[in-house]
Amino acid sequence: MARYQQLCPIIYGEGTISLLGEEVKKLGCTRVMMVSGKTMVKSETYAKCKQSLLDAGMEIVEFNEVIPDPPDYIINKGGEIARKEGIDGIVAVGGGSPMDAAKAINILINNPPPINQYFGNPNYKPGVPVVMVVTTAGTGSESTNVAVVTDTINDVKNSVIGVASLGILDPETTVTVPPETTAYTAMDAFAHAAESITAKEQNPKSELLASDAIRRIVKYLPIAMEDGNNMEARGNLLIASNFAGIAFNDALVHLGHAIAHSIGAKFHITHGAVCALAIPEVMKYAAEISPDKVKIVGESMGLSFEGNETDKEIGEKVASAIREFIKSINIKSLKELGISKEELIDIAPMIFDDPCYNFVPRELTKDEVVDILVNMYENYN
Ligand SMILES: [Fe+2]
Question: Does residue 114 have a cis peptide bond before it, meaning omega lies within 30 degrees of 0?
Answer without folding.
Answer: yes
